[in-house]
Amino acid sequence: MVKGILLDRRFLFLLFIINLAGTIYGYMWYESQLAITPLKFILFVPDSPTASLFFTIFLFFYLFGRNVPYIEALALVTLFKYGMWAVVMNLLTLNLNGELSWSGYMLIASHGAMAIQGLLYAPFYRIKWRHIVLTSIWTLHNDIIDYVFGMMPIYSSLTTYMKEIGYFTFWLSILSIGIAYWLTIRKRSIVKYYY
């Protein structure tokens, strides 16, 4: 039943529209930070909207019966990583400040949904080792840009914990890459072995 819903063209189109709108809103949310970002780092600053852009591209092609494995790998890893990252950062902000704005709760809900949708479509991706390798390079390079060059998203109340957040983010990247491998390459090899 779930598979039927996920593959329903009307549902796919609705998901495409939601992700497209969320991507545009996400880039607008980063507007003030992008205004002060050196041009060479611009591509690596708006993490979450870029993740949802990857998934939006996947949905567009999937609606026409086509797979784009490099985009699928980037979508799977970055949706889970930045979805979970934003949930954790907003919960930390709530813990530190004792309160959270309505936009903070909205970010928890929307980014939690980002992480889940990337995982739900894993059975339909056509990811191979080369796609995981390129995505790993992109993801870990992005961490270097964020935490070595100081281009991470601005969360004013969390700035004193940047080293700890950078460490957490690195291991979240490794976890995300591992999950992508497990849900695609590893799962397919297990199925082939038993069937």
UniProtKB/TrEMBL annotation:
Protein known as: Membrane protein YpjA
Species this protein is from: Aquibacillus albus
Keywords: Membrane, Transmembrane, Transmembrane helix
Transmembrane regions listed in the UniProt entry: 12-30, 42-64, 71-92, 104-124, 168-185
One Pfam family recorded for the sequence: DUF1405
Keyword Transport carried by entry: no
Lineage top rank: taxon: Bacteria
